[in-house]
Amino acid sequence: MTVTATAPAIRLVPGNIVPALTIDTLSGSDWNLANQTPRNYTMVVFYRGLHCPLCAEYLKQLSSKLSQLHGLGIEVIAISGDTREKAANSAETWGLKDLTVGYGLTREAMRQWGLYVSKGAFESEPTYFNEPGLFLVQPDGTLFFASANNAPYGRTDLDALLEGMEFVLNHNYPMRGTEV
Predict the structure, then answer these.
(1) Displacement of CA 27 from its chain's centroid (Å)
(2) Which pick of 99, 101, 105, 112 has the fewest CB atoms within 10 Å?
């Protein structure tokens, strides 16, 4: 297999402003990160799409933790490059009733957010799709936490994240990873 890099890698650095992000949602409205007003953070979860069974399990788990996240002042959106139809199928099939689901993420936006992008290798996969990522963004648009995976496994453990964010908020724990 020959692998060639087509663009330099981008890495988002905590403490810096994240890229602009506006995305269509299944509710029928545009979701704009700049317009979000969470008490503490906006959690942006990028998932691979309908074709990914690991995404199904992860988003079901995420959906089950929404009340805990909201209790910590964290608002959540899950986004993929899927079409509206595929995203709606995911939401319905996976039981994501209360989770805001965005769709139509472009390859350019994937790149700007530092996500790994894969080329479909199986008939069920899109031509190109983003690999998982999870980002916590402060109300002023600065990045607090970043996690990007190059494969569907090894994602951020949501229980550990909840425990960590509770500690962060209760102890004024500083942002980490800010030095480049």
Answers:
(1) 18
(2) 112
Residue 95 backbone zone (phi > 0: left; psi -120 to 50: alpha; other: beta): left
- Output the pTM of the full model: 0.94
3 pLDDT higher than 80 = no
Closest to 77 in 3D by CA, of 11, 27, 125: 27
Pairing status of strand 133-137 against strand 41-46:
antiparallel
CATH code, residues 22-171: 3.40.30.10
d(C-alpha 116, C-alpha 130), whole Å: 6
Which pLDDT tens digit goes with each residue over 111-146?
999 999 999 999 999 999 999 999 999 999 999 999
Asked whether the predicted pLDDT for residue 9 surpasses 80, the reply is no
Per-residue pLDDT, 65: 98
Residues 6+ apart with CB under 8 A from 137: 18, 33, 36, 41, 42, 43, 44, 143, 144
Task: Work out the number of other CB atoms within 10 angstroms of the CB of residue 52.
Answer: 21
